[in-house]
Amino acid sequence: MAKIHPLSDVHSENIGENTFIWQYCVILSNAVIGNNCNINCHVLVENDVIIGDNVTVKPGVQIWDGVTLEDNVFIGPNVTFTNDLVPRSKVYPESFAKTLVKKGASIGANSTIVAGNIIGENAMIGAGSVITKDVPANTVWFGNPAKQKGTIDENGIITYQ
């Protein structure tokens, strides 16, 4: 059974076993959240969102329509996802750009992920980075705009270029 803090506003019934949703979260009705996740305080999850198993989402993150987080993903505090490549007030696209964060990837605090990109398996995005294109698996990126700075192996050992 999921553990949902009484000060959160959760409308979805698609929340997995042993997932904890902390206070002041808003989870919309069509969102899907897997097992054993930790959704920290002050997180918004929209309708067209899929979150896999064993995912950690730190405080201050908004996960907008079109974002998928696969299993074992880490999302640091205040990471920003976008979903509209040409945002205008009261003008809505026919569909939102899709963003995919693949298994085991980690995104550092205050990073911005521009819509329509794929972050590959086990990739590491450094704090404060701005992702403007696809990130290959097992690579390390940071900066604004982020550039590949190295690789990371299955043990978390980073080799810088």
Could you explain the architecture of this structure?
- The chain is an all-beta fold and 161 residues long.
- It has a single domain, classed as UDP N-Acetylglucosamine Acyltransferase, domain 1, CATH 2.160.10.
- It has strands at 3-4, 9-10, 20-21, 26-27, 32-33, 38-39, 44-45, 50-51, 56-57, 62-63, 67-69, 74-75, 80-81, 99-101, 106-107, 112-113, 118-119, 124-125, 130-131, 139-143, 146-152, 158-160.
- The protein has a ten-stranded mixed beta sheet with strand order 1-3-6-9-12-15-18-20-21-22, with no helix packed on it.
- The radius of gyration is 15 Å and the shape is globular.
- The model has no long low-confidence stretch (mean pLDDT 98).
| Proportion of strand residues | 25-35%
For the residues shown, what is the average pLDDT?
98
Number of helical segments? Answer: 0
Shape: globular
Main sheet attributes: strand count, strand direction, barrel closure: 10 strands, mixed
Beginning-to-end CA distance, first to last residue: 45 Å
What is the number of independent domains? Answer: 1
CATH classification, class level: Mainly Beta
The CATH superfamily name is Hexapeptide repeat proteins
Number of strands: 22
Low-confidence stretches: none
CATH topology: UDP N-Acetylglucosamine Acyltransferase, domain 1
Kindly provide the radius of gyration, computed on alpha-carbon positions and rounded to a whole number of angstroms: 15 Å
Helix content range of the residues, please?
under 10%
Structural class: mainly beta
What is the CATH architecture descriptor? 3 Solenoid
What strand line-up does the widest sheet have?
Answer: 1-3-6-9-12-15-18-20-21-22
Written as H for each helix and E for each strand, in order along the chain, the element string is EEEEEEEEEEEEEEEEEEEEEE
